[in-house]
Each structure stands twice: as structure tokens, then as C-alpha cells.
Design goal:
GO molecular function, one term: DNA binding
InterPro entries: Cro/C1-type_HTH, Lambda_DNA-bd_dom_sf
Strand content: 5-15%
Protein name: Transcriptional regulator
Number of helices: 4
Radius of gyration: 11 Å
Distance between the termini: 8 Å
Pfam families: HTH_26
Number of strands: 2
CATH superfamily: lambda repressor-like DNA-binding domains
Organism: Vagococcus elongatus
Strand order of the largest sheet: 1-2
CATH architecture: Orthogonal Bundle
């Protein structure tokens, strides 16, 4: 399965923030947001910026399930 950013999207829904607002607030590129949307890996620095912005831990925005 790999990485899943479903927790991130749930937080944004709770905050009533769309992906474009989120992208601008955190300073992410459209490519990075697309990678997050496809559950692809992103740089740890990006994840740290997201956690700083949301004031949360990394476990709050992503999960990992080992591939079988």
C-alpha cells in the first residue's frame, strides 16, 4: 500500500481549507500538492513545513502500510 495522506486531507476538510489555499499558505508547488494527492513520497522538509503550519505531528498527516 505505501504512504497515505488521507489524514492530511481530513484535517484540511475540518479546517474548511481547499488544496489551493493550503498550497499557498504552506508555500508548496502544484507538483508537490499533486504528489500528495497521489500518495507519492515527498521531501521530509515539505512534511515538516506542513506539520509546522498545522501545528501537528507527522503521524497526524500521513500513515504507512507496508507493501505485501
Amino acid at each position: 500500500m505505501g504512504f497515505s495522506y488521507n489524514r492530511l486531507w481530513k484535517i484540511l476538510i475540518d479546517k474548511e481549507m481547499n488544496k489551493t489555499e493550503f498550497q499557498k499558505a504552506v508555500g508548496l508547488s502544484p507538483t508537490t500538492v499533486a504528489k500528495l494527492g497521489k500518495n507519492e513520497t515527498v521531501n521530509m522538509e515539505v512534511l515538516a513545513r506542513i506539520c509546522d503550519f498545522l501545528e501537528c505531528g507527522i503521524e497526524d498527516i500521513l500513515s504507512y502500510t507496508p507493501k505485501e
